């Protein structure tokens, strides 16, 4: 049995939550390994909707261990609120089935405020963040001035660490003509969070190593998508962490040999939230139809997502960068009823056709999609659970996508419901 890593293969919002939840039935442990509460996963199970931001999607299944790894930046108050909300929906969350890495970096109010200030200060530098403080928290992590979860367990040692943190942030605040923060204010913020989150902390790298050695199956859950990777995405319009599959090892504390099968999640079309290039974006009636039928609004912010045709060039690239073994294709039902469907098979850049997404910000903004037109279908794919339930032309579309991206389709999702899934190949058995 292979451990499985699930990553977004586009710009996020591909439907990872449902797929992770669906796969978690065969897993013993589900690990979130990067990002923060800027990510959102929506699960629909027996008509009940669960909205998750920090918690791994496996929490809604009984008997599974859920882990928030060291690669995640954690807002302790947001985590406590999310635990409370899910508990109120009948989900059992205890220190026995939820563990949070003791070396995870904390997101504080100073990070949220800085994030919002930067986004609102200059039209030309907006990235389109959720203003949740994720980027500034990662900056403090690599700047070696972060407060980590384990620090809350020894409150008397916090003040020198807060002083080091504020020597940086108060200099920035002076530049924004804002009052400086006091050590006491940050101390009180952290002290109030400590009793809410400390029961869940653990040396998760050690726990995961023990579970792996015991033969438990581990499911690694990524947030956002590969095109938002801070190294390999549409920089600078990216998130602040590595979102590709390799981060599963670093962000959980397990080595690269712990990764078995890499499953990429991709919609049957493409969406993006926030600023940045989007070669196949549609601003016409078709784009609006995709957004309405696909309910394309962000789980965390409620922002409408930009919609466009499937981009095979970008997906082929992310499949290589993440070492994707198979793709779970989601929201096929949103394409039902279209007379024709277009797929991007190349880009035109300054009069030349290319077959990769260039790294340059300027080049990314100038690429134009080269389309192939595929016949649509009049039947419905919604709720299909086998190939026999799909219209013939829908199957042809899936097979053509498979050819263009150079990667097999191993799962097809036809609605938000857990059971409405066509299994082609089981990642855990591969």
UniProtKB/TrEMBL annotation:
InterPro entries linked: Adenylosuccin_syn_GTP-bd, Adenylosuccin_syn_Lys_AS, Adenylosuccinate_synth_dom1, Adenylosuccinate_synth_dom2, Adenylosuccinate_synth_dom3, Adenylosuccinate_synthetase, P-loop_NTPase
Note on cofactor: Binds 1 Mg(2+) ion per subunit.
GO MF annotation list: adenylosuccinate synthase activity; GTP binding; magnesium ion binding
Binding site for IMP: 13-16, 38-41, 130, 144, 224, 239, 303
Keyword field: Cytoplasm, GTP-binding, Ligase, Magnesium, Metal-binding, Nucleotide-binding, Purine biosynthesis
Keyword DNA damage appears in the UniProt entry: no
Keyword rRNA processing: no
Annotated binding of substrate, by residue: 299-305
Enzyme Commission code(s) on record: 6.3.4.4
UniProt-annotated binding residues for Mg(2+): 13, 40
Matching Pfam families: Adenylsucc_synt
Pathway: Purine metabolism; AMP biosynthesis via de novo pathway; AMP from IMP: step 1/2
PROSITE patterns reported in the protein's UniProt record: ADENYLOSUCCIN_SYN_1, ADENYLOSUCCIN_SYN_2
Catalytic activity: IMP + L-aspartate + GTP = N(6)-(1,2-dicarboxyethyl)-AMP + GDP + phosphate + 2 H(+)
Gene Ontology biological process terms, A to Z: 'de novo' AMP biosynthetic process; IMP metabolic process
Subcellular compartments: Cytoplasm
Main location: cytoplasm
Organism superkingdom: Bacteria
Co-factor requirement: Mg(2+)
Single GO cellular component term: cytoplasm
Alphabetized HAMAP family for the sequence: Adenylosucc_synth
Family: Belongs to the adenylosuccinate synthetase family.
Name of the protein in question: Adenylosuccinate synthetase
């Amino acid at each position: 049995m292979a451990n499985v890593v699930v990553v977004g293969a586009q710009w996020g919002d591909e439907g990872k939550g449902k797929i992770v939840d669906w796969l978690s039935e065969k897993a013993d442990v589900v690990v979130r390994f990067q990002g923060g509460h800027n990510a959102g996963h929506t699960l629909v199970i027996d008509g009940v909707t669960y909205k998750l931001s920090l918690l791994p999607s496996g929490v809604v299944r009984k008997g599974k261990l859920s882990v928030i790894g060291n690669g995640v930046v954690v807002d302790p108050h947001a985590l406590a609120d999310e635990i409370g909300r899910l508990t109120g929906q009948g989900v059992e969350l205890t220190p026995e089935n939820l563990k949070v890495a003791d070396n995870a970096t904390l997101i504080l109010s100073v990070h949220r405020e800085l994030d919002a200030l930067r986004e609102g200060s200059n039209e030309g530098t907006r990235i389109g963040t959720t203003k949740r403080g994720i980027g500034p928290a990662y900056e403090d992590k690599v700047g070696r001035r972060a407060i980590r979860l384990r620090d809350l367990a020894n409150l008397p040692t916090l003040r020198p660490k807060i002083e080091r943190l504020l020597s940086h942030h108060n200099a920035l605040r002076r530049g924004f003509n804002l009052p400086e923060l006091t050590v006491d204010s940050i101390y009180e913020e952290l002290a109030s969070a400590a009793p809410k989150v400390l029961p869940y902390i653990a040396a998760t790298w050690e726990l995961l190593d023990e579970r792996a050695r015991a033969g438990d199956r581990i499911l690694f859950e990524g947030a956002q998508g590969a095109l938002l990777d801070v190294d390999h995405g549409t920089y600078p319009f990216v998130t602040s962490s590595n979102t590709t599959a390799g981060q599963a090892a670093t962000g959980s504390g397990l080595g690269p040999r712990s990764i078995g099968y890499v499953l990429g999640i991709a919609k049957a079309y493409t969406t993006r939230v926030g600023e940045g290039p989007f070669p196949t974006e549609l601003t016409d009636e078709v784009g609006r139809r995709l957004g309405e039928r696909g309910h394309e609004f962000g789980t965390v912010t409620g922002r409408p997502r930009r919609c466009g045709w499937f981009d095979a060039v970008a997906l082929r690239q992310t499949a290589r960068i993440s070492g994707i073994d198979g793709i779970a294709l989601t929201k096929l039902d949103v394409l039902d009823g279209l007379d024709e469907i277009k797929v991007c098979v190349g880009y035109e850049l300054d009069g030349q056709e290319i077959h990769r997404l260039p790294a340059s910000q300027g080049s990314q903004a100038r690429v134009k999609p080269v389309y192939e037109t595929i016949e649509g279908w009049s039947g419905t794919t919604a709720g299909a659970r086998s190939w026999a339930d799909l219209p013939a032309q829908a199957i042809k579309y899936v097979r053509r996508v498979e050819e263009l991206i150079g990667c097999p389709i191993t799962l097809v999702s036809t609605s938000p419901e857990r059971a409405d899934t066509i299994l082609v190949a089981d990642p855990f058995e591969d």
